[in-house]
Amino acid sequence: MGAVRFAVVIFWSLTAVAALSACGGDDERSAQERLSIEFMAGFRAQANLPFVAVYVAQAQGFFDDAGLDVTIRHATEGEHIRLLLSGDVDVTTQPASELLQRRADPGAPLVAVALFGQRGDLGYAVLEESGIETPRDFAGKTVGFKVVVQAEFLALLSAYGLGVDDVELVPVGFNPVVLTEGQVDVYPVFLSNEPDTLTRVIGAPVRVFEAADVGVPTLGVTYVVSEEFLEDATKREALRRFLAATMRAFEFALADPDAAIEATRAFIPEDADLEHERFILTTELGNALSPLTTENGVGWFTLAQFQALHDLLLAFGGIEQAIAVEEAIDRSILEETDGN
Predict the structure, then answer these.
(1) Integer Cα distance of 298 and 289 in angstroms
(2) Beta partners for residue 112, in sequence order
(3) Exposure class string for 224-250: b at 16+ Cβ within 10 A, else e
(4) Helix axes 303-315, 96-104, angle to 10 degrees
(5) Measured between alpha carbons, how far is 189 from 121 in angstroms, rounded to an integer?
(6) Residue 173 has what pLDDT?
(7) pLDDT digit string (tens) for 49-66?
(8) N or C: which end of the chain has fewer CB within 10 A?
(9) Residue 197: which residues within 8 A CB-CB, separation 6 or more?
């Protein structure tokens, strides 16, 4: 090969290497480019675990480590799902049962991407002095319901050979004092807060029954996005970073719940009852763990879990028609975090 031709070959080879190196640098910079995401908690600020995971990730710099800027908002009038579907919010929270119900009617394109409650967040409280020892004793009693009669409650009755005709159902709203005043014998509680309100704050010790204790398939709160959100590669990467940071924060809260409460204080009112906030977090941390999360990591879920919940809802009137459950969940982004 002539000297000139050799020099030309070397020149173009070095040019190609330089170009490839430049492309590699662009790819690396692109991978490290800061992204943003808008999170809206589905309720006011408090120590619910899905909220705390975001508070901790912000306070401990986990979002920063992931190259993610997160705007944190809170729903005031249940507007979070509407804003999610309109694209004004990227991620929000939703109980698994409500997710399936919204997909069934009106067909909202919601997708769960992480699960916190490995069991449901509802229970049924009676006064300790009531003499009610098991749900079988609900027969002939007055039972409250908040908005609708939950399918899991009907399944709980069924497990004890009872039906709706065996109890008197009464709408009670969201004020647990109706139990202490004797307006109902059984009051539906959110497990993470109302038992503490009744027992410690009001001074009325209660006994709480859960449908999951008799094998009824229940699930708690999820992180939710829209189908449209998942179609965007950049948004999927932002979600991957968000889940990596919040699952890291979840584990942090398990190891140091006091620090998690401290992170929460930046969002709750200054006069908030911190003992109550600790009760919320402790309860939800306990319900977020299972053999499944021990084996696979926090936030994990399976199609079988959601399918069982779907079938329960269908059997007891929670939804009127079957849906494709696999379209309501997407674990792939959680799997991609791999602890990073």
Answers:
(1) 7
(2) 224, 329
(3) bbbeebbeeeebbbbbbbbbbbbbbbb
(4) 60
(5) 8
(6) 87
(7) 999 999 999 999 999 999
(8) N
(9) 176, 276
Whole-angstrom distance, CA of residue 31 vs CA of residue 49: 29
Write out residues in the chain with pLDDT < 70, as ranges: 1-32, 339-340
Distance in angstroms (rounded) separating the CA atoms of residues 265 and 251: 19
Contact 222, 302 (CB under 8 A): no
Other beta carbons within 10 Å of 98: 16
Distance CA 296, CA 156 (A): 29
For residue 163, the 8-state DSSP code is -
Q: Distance between CA 260 and CA 262 in Å, rounded?
A: 5
> What confidence score (pLDDT) does residue 340 get?
52
Instruction: Identify whether the C-beta of residue 144 lies closer than 8 Å to the C-beta of residue 181.
Output: no
Please tell me the number of Cα atoms within 13 Å of 221 on its side-chain side. Answer: 22
Closest CA to 289 of 255, 335, 265: 255
C-alpha pair distances (Å), 276 with each of 24, 46, 208, 283: 52, 10, 17, 11
In 3D space, the residue among 125, 281, 149, 97 whose CA is nearest the CA of residue 210 turns out to be 125
State how beta strands 110-115 and 221-226 pair.
antiparallel
Nearest to 36 by CA among 13, 12, 66: 66
